[in-house]
Specification:
The protein has 135 residues and is an alpha/beta fold. The protein is 36% helix and 22% strand. Strands 1-2-3-4 form a four-stranded mixed β-sheet.
C-alpha cells in the first residue's frame, strides 16, 4: 500500500501571502485542520488550526478586544506556517508514513510530485479510516 492509495487529492493550497482571516475562513468552510502553503506552485510550508490558535489573539470579537488583538489578523500565512514541512511522494509506503507520524509530532503529510507541487495530503485520520475499512 502506498500514499497514493489513501491520500486526499482535492487539496486546497494557499499562497504565502494569504492573510490569516482568509486562511481561517477556508479552514472553517471546508472543515480542514491543515493547509499546504505554496510559493510559485511549490510546497513551502504547512499551516494548521493549532498554528492559528497559537498566533491569533483569543480576545478578538470579545469585550476585551484591543487594537493589538486585531493586529494579529494582519499577518500573512508565511509568518505563521511551519517551513520546510516533511512531505512524501505518491510512491511512499504506508509503513514509512506511519513511521513519520510516530517519530515526529505531526498530524499530516503533504504528498508532492517531482516538481514539489502538492498532489495530495494524508492525515492521521486518513490512516485510521483506511485501517478500519481494511479490517
Amino acid at each position: 500500500m502506498r500514499a497514493q492509495d489513501i491520500m486526499v487529492t482535492n487539496v486546497i493550497c494557499i499562497d504565502m501571502d494569504e492573510r490569516l482571516p482568509n486562511v481561517r475562513q477556508i479552514m472553517k468552510r471546508h472543515g480542514f485542520h491543515h493547509l499546504p502553503v505554496t510559493e510559485k506552485g511549490k510546497l513551502a510550508g504547512i499551516i494548521s488550526d493549532r498554528d492559528l490558535l497559537r498566533f491569533i489573539s483569543p480576545f478578538i470579537n470579545s469585550a476585551s478586544e484591543q487594537p493589538r488583538d486585531l493586529d494579529t489578523l494582519n499577518h500573512a500565512a508565511h509568518q505563521v506556517m511551519t517551513r520546510q514541512p516533511i512531505s512524501v511522494k505518491a510512491e511512499t509506503s504506508i509503513e514509512e508514513i506511519v513511521a513519520w507520524f510516530k517519530r515526529v509530532d505531526i498530524s499530516c503529510l503533504p504528498v508532492i510530485d517531482d516538481k514539489e507541487q502538492v498532489i495530495g495530503i494524508i492525515t492521521w485520520r486518513d490512516l485510521i479510516n483506511h485501517a478500519t475499512f481494511k479490517t
